[in-house]
Amino acid sequence: MADIQSTNAAAPAIIHRQDYSPPDWFVPEISLDFTLDPASTQVRATLSVTRNGAHERPLILDGDGLSPMEVQVDGRLLQGGEWMMKGDALVIPLPGDAHQIETLVELAPENNSKLMGLYASGGLLCTQCEAEGFRRITFFPDRPDILSRYSVCMEADQTRYPILLSNGDPVEQGSLPNGRHWARWNDPFPKPCYLFALVAGDLSCKADSFVTMSGRTVRLGIWVKEGDLPRTDHAMQALKNSMAWDERVYGREYDLDVFNIVAVADFNFGAMENKGLNIFNSRYILADPETATDIDYDGVEAVVAHEYFHNWSGNRVTCRDWFQLSLKEGFTVFRDQNFSADMGSHAVKRIEDVRVLRAAQFQEDSGPLAHPVRPESYIEISNFYTATIYNKGAELIRMIALMLGPDRFRAGSDLYFDRHDGQAATCEDFVKAMEEGGGIDLRQFRRWYEQAGTPHVRATLRHDPAAQTVELLLEQSIPPTPGQPDKQPMAIPLRTALFDRAVGRHRGETLLMLTQAQQSFTFSGFADAPILSINRGFSAPVIVEADRSQTELAFLSAHDDDPFARYEAMQQLMVNVLVGRVAGQNIDEGAVVAAIRDTATDPKLDPAFIAEAIRLPSEAYLGDQMAQVDPDAIHAARDALQQRIGQQLEPLWRDIHANMKANGFSLSPAAKGARKLRNIALLYLVASGTDDGPTMAFSQFDEADNMTERQSALATLANNISNEREAALDIFYNRYRSDALTLDKWFQTQAFASHPDTVDLVEELARHPDFTLSNPNRVRSLFGAFAGNQWAFHHKSGKGYRMVADCIIALDKINPQTAARLAPPLGRWRRFDEGRAVLMRAELQRILAEPGLSKDVAEQVGKSLN
Ligand code: 0A1
Ligand code: ZN
């Protein structure tokens, strides 16, 4: 494979954080004129530019695929030779310190399959500029530390595009000859160009209003296709709740007279926080009981909140450069997590968030793509919208909030927002504001931003009966990650309690700060050895290794008053049995079955919590606990245990399934919890192999008045070979084939199924007439779900690897961003046996040898091979 290097000879440029330098030119004002048309759109941009300090460097305007049709300076048309192209950038030498630059370019939005810049989606024209899409619309210094006031005029066909939206407030509109019309919008807040947006289309508005804490009325609009209007209620309620929450919890008020949201069908990510004009992937706006699961409803609420919260954490205070991305993303995820917890259950939300962190971020942190929360370098910034930047970033803020307590944390956030309002800031600015506003020294804590890798904490408890003391020895280690072989100790806050076996309680929780490689803490007054409950609430994003017997874990699973720790004890009980069995030990499942029975029958517990606690850990999580992942053995062990739990507690599952059936649909936390528990009961029943399992699942599928129960029954059926499986899949397809978001569930359920033929089924589905590479949601539903299905994807034939690699190669020609996001599962080859590792590497090498590969995919695949 020696010639691979030479086929990709031109090494792409690496951008380094240390190379940051302030801009040579500022752009305080920009006026944009769009003559919109899907085949040919003209963009005239007028920039007022000012020189930053004394230098003689020319003005350099970024472009991506643009060629200037005109360049003017101060009203004079420049001749060729008075400007030049350097790569994709436009270079204009300028004599004075302040000038007006005008450029004209032409775009073809209907040919823009990358979904970056101005593109067409389902009859709409819309934009996506973060991170570097604005340069695909017009020539501009495309970096987040250039803040400009925007005035935007759009002209378009009145019938095809009756609605014209942009950032800020609408100021004027009018008709034109030839069936065209125009509208002008002004945004009074200076913003970076990644927050620019426009939308043109035939849209209907769900309208509402919100009165802010200072008494201003804000007009709210959610813009969708007319037929989707009935599916916007939940998003609107979530928006109003978010606005009220940010006022109450952070003292932050909305600042424009209008707040608009638009739903689009083709979108690379979840949504985008453009100032005053959020653009959403429609899956995070549209929801009704017929088509959306409870998870979908929660996703809508969380993403609406996330984008809204960015108005302060991201827009009013933005990022100086893209290395600071977690400044806005980590903080905003932390804010949306707490909002969702306040709207529902704190315990369940924390469990869900930790599950996501472990599934996505811990895997990233232990593989070839590991990077710090504040990275040092990148090739393609789109690849850095990662679980580390978002979810680990949120955990860092959570630790700061824990160490400070609510009042001092609020003092810190107030200082941060007030000090940096209207600025492009850094992670360091945030940490300093927390230190000063909250009164804390975060010198050592800063390492969390610098060092990649998930810290391991070994906890050993030593009891001295004579002295009646216990010593807790804590040892931390951080594994090497790419470019960081040696690590310094981190400051790790661990909420800890010691339980008295006799009384089933602890004597008060303490927050231990582990700051050294090894540290010991002594507690007195313990005649008997207590049981350790540590990292309660998952207070730090670390892996704890504590030697606790199955008896001790069973004790915690019954008595721990911290719901996360209680859940964790249950999970660890199950992990011990499963990992032990995969390693060939015959470990008794009695403690697991008893703990599940006791938890499921405890009347004091919330059904939503019970559902989380009694679920077996995922196959992927089990793989993470092993030195080498054995997908087949893990699947077999987990499946067998699931069956035993199903059989041994069969009457309990039948009871729960009958008792948790609701009378009518509601979205209350209690109703959602009941559905969650009922679905787990069905899963165990079917897993037990009982004769009527498939018919019970089919009845639930058939009779459900909501998608949560219907899809869950379908997913349960999809795992096993049965006539009911085929019937339910057919019915589902025929019922929802015309609704893209719901049809995605049909693809996803099959791709994620624990079925022996999943690999072949996915291959067939990729040829299905409803499968398309041009819609990112559809691609993720099939190949994203499949690559997350450990047993199926790691089929030892290597067929799964080949299919995903084929998809990446084909998609890269259309949409590199979405293609690159499918690569990381192939990069985990070091975690598998030699046979699989060789096959995975071969696919990575095949991708890398592809001529004309995007830098998005080249970066992910290249790093994965190193
Ligand atoms: N800032 C958005 C995420 C986002 C990033 C890049 C995009 O381009 C395709 C789109 C969205 C957020 O955090 O929600
Ligand atoms: Zn965000």
Topology:
Elements: H1 4-7, E1 15-16, E2 25-35, E3 41-51, E4 59-61, E5 70-73, E6 76-77, E7 84-86, E8 89-92, E9 98-107, E10 117-121, E11 124-128, E12 148-157, E13 163-166, E14 169-176, E15 180-191, E16 198-201, E17 204-211, E18 217-224, H2 233-250, E19 258-264, E20 271-272, E21 277-281, H3 294-309, E22 318-319, H4 325-343, H5 346-365, E23 377-378, H6 387-404, H7 406-420, E24 424-425, H8 427-438, H9 447-450, E25 456-464, E26 469-477, E27 492-500, E28 505-506, E29 510-514, E30 518-524, E31 531-534, E32 543-546, H10 550-559, H11 563-582, H12 590-600, H13 607-614, H14 619-624, H15 631-648, H16 650-659, H17 669-688, H18 693-703, H19 707-718, H20 723-736, H21 740-751, H22 758-765, H23 776-787, H24 790-793, H25 799-812, H26 816-820, H27 834-848, H28 855-865
Parallel strand pairs: 2-12, 18-19, 19-21, 22-24, 25-32
Antiparallel strand pairs: 1-23, 2-3, 3-9, 4-8, 5-6, 5-9, 7-8, 10-11, 11-16, 12-15, 13-16, 14-15, 17-18, 20-21, 25-26, 26-30, 27-28, 27-29, 27-31
Bound molecules: O-methyl-L-tyrosine and zinc ion.
Summarize this entry quickly.
The chain is α+β, with helices and mostly antiparallel strands and 866 residues long. It is built from 28 helices and 32 strands.
Write a structural description:
- There is one protein chain.
- With 866 residues, the protein is α+β, with helices and mostly antiparallel strands.
- Among the domains are: 196 residues, Sandwich (Immunoglobulin-like), CATH 2.60.40; 134 residues, Neutral Protease, domain 2; 92 residues, Sandwich (Immunoglobulin-like), CATH 2.60.40; 128 residues, Zincin-like fold, CATH 1.25.50.
- 40% of the residues lie in helices and 21% in strands.
- The chain is built from 28 helices and 32 strands.
- The strands form 8 sheets. Strands 6-5-9-3-2-12-15-14 form an 8-stranded mixed β-sheet, with no helix packed on it. A 5-stranded mixed β-sheet has the order 17-18-19-21-20, covered by helices on one side.
- It is globular and about 90 Å long.
- The N terminus is likely disordered.
- The structure holds O-methyl-L-tyrosine (0A1) and zinc ion.
- It is an enzyme of class 3 (hydrolase).
